[in-house]
Amino acid sequence: MLALDIQNLGKIFKGKKRQIVDALQGVSLTVPEGEVFGFLGPNGAGKSTTIKCLMGLIRPTTGSANIMGVAAGTEASKRHVGYLPENPAFYDYLSAEEYLSFVGRTFQMQESLLQRRREEALKLLELWDARKRPIRGYSKGMVQRVGLAQVLIHDPSVYILDEPMSGLDPIGRALVKEIILDLKKRGKCVFFSTHITDDVEKVCDRVGILLHGQLKLVERVDTIMTQGIVGYQIRIRNSDGKSVDHQVTKDMLDGFIAGQVASGNEVVLVEPRRKNLEDLFLALVHNGAGSSS
Amino acid sequence: MNSLRFPAGLTIAGLLIYLMLIGPFTSFMKNKPLVEKLGYMPSVNVLRSLSGDQKELAGASLVMKVLMYFGGIVGKAQEGRVISEPPDLQGMSRLLHGAVKLDPYNIDAYYFAQSFLTWDARQFKVANALLDYGMKYRTWDWYLPFFAGFNSAYFLKDYAKASEYYKKAGELSGQDLHRSLAGRYMQEAGQTELAIAYLSAIEKGENNPAMKKNYQIRLYAFRELHRIELACDRFRNEQGIMPVSVAQLQQQGYLDPEPVDPYGGRFYIDSSGKVKTTSKFAFATKNK
Amino acid sequence: MITIIQITLKGIFRDRVFQGIMALAVLFLFIPSAASLSMRQVTELSITLSLSLISFILLLLAVFLGSTSLWKDMERRYTFSVLSLPVSRTSYLLGRFFGLALFLLMTSALLGTVAGLVIKVASGIYPPGRPIVWSYLLLAVIFATLKYILLVAAAMLLSTVSTSFFLPVFGTICTFLASGITQQVYEFVHSPASANTISPFLKTVATGVYYILPNLSGFDLKVNAIYSIPPSGYGLGLTLFYFISYTAMLLGGAALLFARREMK
């Protein structure tokens, strides 16, 4: 079953003074169960708009979306989802423990299960010591971790995370990556938005790049990595024992190696030189900017 | 630390000016003429709208305002000071009429209004009209017809109306006293006794200290008057002629000690032989 | 919805609203001495003051809690986290409403008890002209509470359409003031005296406004409680159903508007 099925999703905001903002145009995208999908785009590209449409916080102008086969925005669809808003805020008069209990109750979890999961989540996200304090007194990173804890507590099959790494220190970011990889191992679908390419490279199966409300590219991350190879760095040791590095383009690789071998040199190292996701992303952004202007 | 100098200085300067001002300000407010203190009352219709669902509270606060004002006047009169301005009886009446428009059940307003409208303002008809208005609402209350009955008998000399009111009061209270009152005191001669009986009944039930004092003073004046009347009667019985003055009664030993009018007036015997006082049972005012 | 009610109540208590009420309720201690200033109706005045104080506290709660409850959730972005939980917007709104209504009920139960004690004390100092009928007093407090619960619903309706704090707060206050005088205006407009001065158009408009705005004067049983006048059972029944129907309309409208609202 498709975890996420987005068809021709579009959103036009009508601002004041009859200003019209075309925030999202005909986005179609499907994400199967068990996949980690990175939703990449610069600020203001429409990532959060897409996600808010999925969560029923705003109504799409065109198109539709389903979550686990259920129309997005309905109560039934939200049962399948753990959602972390961008820069989240939670009832700050509650403690982390109370807030997690509140979330668990809205998902109608059994009290004993809720207690066990709550403890696990609080310990995993290093909130255990602060669990009795009101959220009001938490740092930004702690609030973000409460957000992750409330996503994990009811063990949904789809995780929709809007900028999960923002506001976290390097240790926290590593923890989030670990959590996402763990969810992937358990066959969960994770759909997260970010503007940091490195995060996507490390954990995602596929990536979608959104620019100016349009989905420019959807591709497997490993394909991008292989396609992105633009050349190789080859270290050759010649007969008198000296090592020399050569830069070779992709299509000249075979010929170059054959030639070296033929001349009796030893190929010590072949390292692909690749254009990474960031280069691809930047290239797309610049092209997009060029074409639209 | 330097950054705190300005706010600290500001606070201290403010405090100093406040301390300098508070004394004069308080005494200014205290010595503000009483008429001004009664204040302006917006039209009843506006007040009704503004008070929303708190009409009873608004009514009670108007009554309180009048009462405080009046309490101040009684206080000053007792200190022996002649009131510098006449009490603003019109203003008091206006406020109390406003109060019963807001809360037609407020007995304080009726009670107080009928008290000063009669004795002080001599507006007997206005007082009884107000009491009639109240009787439409306070259908269980015998006090209102009791007051109105006294006003009719004592001030208006309308004995038919008075006995009508007393009958009503008697029916509501279930006490024969009120029914018999009108009949007993229809003659001129009984007026003082009627007033004493009426005032002592009210004084006993009075709770507010200022009002109680007010009634005690009036009662005292009437008892003094009654003492002179009794002396007059004795004089006539024994000598067969009417006394011509209060002084004559004193000189011939019919009256001792000398009667004192707490309102600062002087008792005298008029040409028809009736004992009266120059104060008319109200405190003198300069403008009079 | 029960969970929303729970956290609504928890929020009110954690925000020290209750302590604020207690601070105001200290005024109850002064009622007996203030009432003793009265000449003939010490008990009546103490009932007036008690009921007015209760009304005042409930009004403050209704206006501020009612209009800030939803507004604060949107302003502080709590709605993103809460509305994405499997909670429908309607049950979220109703949960908020019933939480506030429950809090008003609790407050008036507590203040009503305090007022009862105060009145008892005052009536001990100076016996009332008419015996106090405690059930009328209870009815007066209950209907005052219902009135302010209705006002909470009006405040919530306003805050579903507003992006700022001012419309709900001032709108609710205006509604409250207007609701107290609509009956008077209506009666004036329809009186024969006004026939010459009021144009038919204005008359129609005033009548229309009368039917749209809530008429809260029926909920005022203070006179009955203060002077022990029996309230009309028929009137109470009508008022109760008026409360139910009008609140239902307000909440239904609020839920419709809130469901359409975009959480940008």
Overview of the molecule:
The complex is a heterotrimer of chains A (293), B (288) and C (264). Chain A has 293 residues and is α/β, with parallel strands linked by helices. Chain A folds into two domains: 2-225, 3-Layer(aba) Sandwich (Rossmann fold), CATH 3.40.50; 229-274. Helices cover 37% and strands 31% of the residues of chain A. A six-stranded mixed beta sheet of chain A has the order 6-7-8-3-9-10, with helices on both faces. Chain A has a four-stranded antiparallel beta sheet with strand order 2-1-4-5. A three-stranded antiparallel beta sheet of chain A has the order 12-11-13. Chain B is mostly helical. Helix content of chain B is 67%, strand content 2%. Chain B has a two-stranded antiparallel sheet. Chain C is mainly alpha-helical and 264 residues long. Chain C has one domain. The two termini of chain C are 24 Å apart.
Strand proportion of chain B: under 5%
Biggest sheet character of chain B: 2 strands, antiparallel
Series of secondary-structure elements of chain A, N-terminal to C-terminal: EEEHEEHEHHHEHEHEEHEEHEH
How much helicity do the residues of chain B have?
A: 55-70%
Low-confidence stretches of chain B: none
Secondary structure: number of strands of chain A: 13
Most extensive interface between two protein chains, with residue counts: B-C, 27 and 33 residues
- What structural category arises from helix and sheet content of chain B? mainly alpha
Low-confidence stretches of chain A: none
Give me the side-by-side strand order of the main sheet of chain A. 6-7-8-3-9-10
Distance between the termini of chain B: 67 Å
Number of strands of chain B: 2
The main β sheet of chain A shows up as: 6 strands, mixed
Oligomeric state of shown chains: heterotrimer
Q: Return the CATH class of the largest domain in chain A.
A: Alpha Beta
